[in-house]
Every structure is written in structure tokens, then in C-alpha cells.
Amino acid sequence: MIRQLHIVIHVLLVCLTLGLWPGAAAAADAGFNGFLASMWPQARDAGISRATFEAITAGLEPDYKLPDLILPGRPKTGAPAQAEFVQVPADYLKETTISRLASYGQRLLQQHRATLDRIERQFGVPATVVLAIWGRETDFGRYRLPYDLMRVLATQAYVGRRKEQYQVEFIEAMKIVQEGHAARGDLRSSWAGATGLTQFLPSEFYKHGVDFDGDGRIDIWHSVPDALASAAQQLANKGWQSGVRWAYEVRAPANVDCTLGVPEVSRPIGEWLRQGFVPVRGQRLSAAEQAQPASLLQPEGIYGPSFLTTKNYFVIKEYNFSDLYVLFVGHVADRIRDPQPFATPWAATTQLRSKDVEAMQRHLTRLGLYADKLDGKAGMQTRAALGAYQKAAGLKVDCWPSVSVLQALQSAR
Questions:
Q1: I need a surface site. Which of 267, 275, 285, 392 has the fewest CB within 10 A?
Q2: Helices vs strands, H then E, count in the chain
Q3: For the chain, what is the radius of gyration of the CA atoms?
């Protein structure tokens, strides 16, 4: 009974906070302020001083316009439609953007040559890859992140869909300030709480951050050496293999089975080549390269470019779980060294809306062809499951989510 009363009181306070009832202004933010106060024991146990805690939480206000929140009396919100998951490759991988970043990256490669050489020697990650991540995340530091980090983390910890995760991140961010790595005013972030030149969550900062310029603090907000070395350290910690490329663009044989395009199907590159896959532009792969295991990636199904992806492809994917993100970073990295675009152009495909892709995933799950998340994202597993359905239904097998295939699924029994 007492627990139920506490829940009711909490809901009432949140409703008042959000202005859902008349006269709410008088009690504005009461629930949020109570939540902040409740965080003190956890912060204290993590080594946060009372002075730091008070300095950060004093006057802090929630931002109920953020995505991915659960607010009483309001429709459930999810993560925003990130470009990586809703745009077709041709839109996400715009040549004008790629060439602009690659051109600027070439200048930065020379400007920071000594630092980048040291990073490559120490972590085994190519200079071009860390530069490409910097370019994608903050346009080489020229893009100002739009949100206040502490406000984002506190709001997500209070009414976000992943409260426990963000409570940890909120306290980790307090440690960043307390230990002098960054001033409170420098902590800008994305809506999801990623901060710094190379976009780290506070917990990632502590797992992978590096004081590479030797000034006694890890500064991923202003120090280019620290930010790039930290990005390299993160990739190395997640299994980056030195001397291995992230992917090889290939021409697929006419009879390619696109349902093989999943990480679970991994074969030596030489075996893929013997099955009719041909490296573009006459590239000749060494025996060591042909011995490397790789998976097939066809981001547009049988349309557009095809790739044989190495382990390092999936390491970059842990930085951002999107095939298009990895393609963007990998291609910018390649273009810093070589100005040639993808050998095969992207097709003029259209992308279904997220809710339609999710409906497709539900149908594929019902048919026993899909066992991954219902997230509305047409990733590797969704495309492969779709191809398996097309095979079974006697349709053209292209592994691409289209209106016609969705309609066929909806009518299937």
C-alpha cells in the first residue's frame, strides 16, 4: 500500500511538473528536484563531493522536449529518426559531403601529422580513420553540439526510457567536472548525451579517454590529440586489428544470394572471390588479405555497391550501430588517401517509413524468418530475412524493403 502511494505521489508530481493540470506552475519541477535530491547518495558513493553535486544541480531544469522520454499524460516518444536509419544510402552518403570532409581531412592529416603518426603507432588505428570519425561526429570541431550535457543526462535519468543507464552517465559527467577534465560550460552534447569532438558518453570517456598531449587531464573538448587518441583507444579496446582494412568494395556475381549478407556468414575473402566476387578497379589482394575472414554487405540489397567487410568494419559499428555510419566513416577515411568515389553508384531506391519497416519485421517474425529487434530499421538481419521470404514466396529476391513486398507480407497467411 505504501509503495502504491509513493507511485501515485511520484506521478502527481511529474504531472504537476509538466504542467498537465491548472495551477501547476506553483509546483513546477517539484518532481524533478526531488529526483535530483534522491541522486545524492549514489553520487556520494561514487566519490562526488557535496560541493560539486550542489554546483551542478543548483538551478538545473529538465528538458521535456528531448526525444526518447516517457511522460505521463503524453504520447510515448522514441529516439528521433536518425539519418543513419531512415535515409537511403545515396542521401546519407552524399558525394558533396564526402568530398568536402575528405578534402579538409587531407589538410588536417598534414597539420597533425606528428600526433597522428604517434596515435597510429600506439593504437594501430590508421590516422585517416580517426580523422573520419572526427569529421562525421562534429565536422572536425566546427559543429557546436546543441544541448547542455548535464540537462540532457538529468532529464533522461529522470523520465527517459533508459533511466538506469543515464543515472550512471549523469554521475560520470559530474566526475568529469570534479576532476577538472572540463569546465561545466564546455559540456555540450547531442540529445542522447554524447559529448566532445569525437562524441563520447561520459562512461566511454572513462573507459577509453587518453591524455595524449601530456597536460595532466583528458580533454576531448578542446585537445585534438586527446580527442583523436581517445577515439583510437576506443576502437583498439573494441578489437581493432592493425593492418586490416575495414572493407573491400566488390562487384557481386549476377546470381548473388543476398540473404548471405549477415555477420554470421563469414568466409575467407579468397573464398568469396572464388565464388565470383571481384574487387573493383582491378585491385589485386595479397595472400594475407585473401585469408582474412569477411562478411558480405549489400546496403541496398542487390542494388548499389557490394562490400566484403572485415572485423574492423564491425569494430567501427560499435562506435555507432549503423551500416551507413560505418560506410560513411570508412569511405571518408579512404578518400583522404585516394579521391576516387565508390566504383558502383548508389541506386535510386526509396526507403520505407520506420513504422512500415517495423510492420514488415513483425510479419517476418510471425513467419519465423526474423528473430531480431522490432526497431523499424532495415539493417542486415531485416534485409536477409526479407530475402528469405522472397525466396519462399517465389518473388524476385533483392533483399530490399519495398511497398510491394510489404503488401505481399500483409496478405500472406
A1: 392
A2: 20, 8
A3: 24
Distance CA 380, CA 266 (A): 14
Cell of 26: 506553483
Helix (H, G, I), strand (E, B) or coil at 276: coil
The CA distance from 60 to 292, in Å, is 52
Residue with cell 550535457: 149
Scan for cell 583507444, then name that residue: 233
Give the span between the Cα atoms of 272 and 28, in whole angstroms: 62
pLDDT band at 350 (very low <50, low <70, confident <90, very high): confident
Q: Measured in whole angstroms, how far is the alpha carbon of residue 351 from the centre of its chain?
A: 19
Q: Which amino acid is at 25?
A: A
What stretches of 124-223 show up as alpha helix (H) in DSSP?
A: 127-138, 149-159, 163-178, 202-208
Burial category of 41 from C-beta neighbours within 10 Å (exposed 0-12, middle 13-18, buried 19 and up):
exposed
Closest by CA to 378, choosing from 298, 294, 264, is: 298
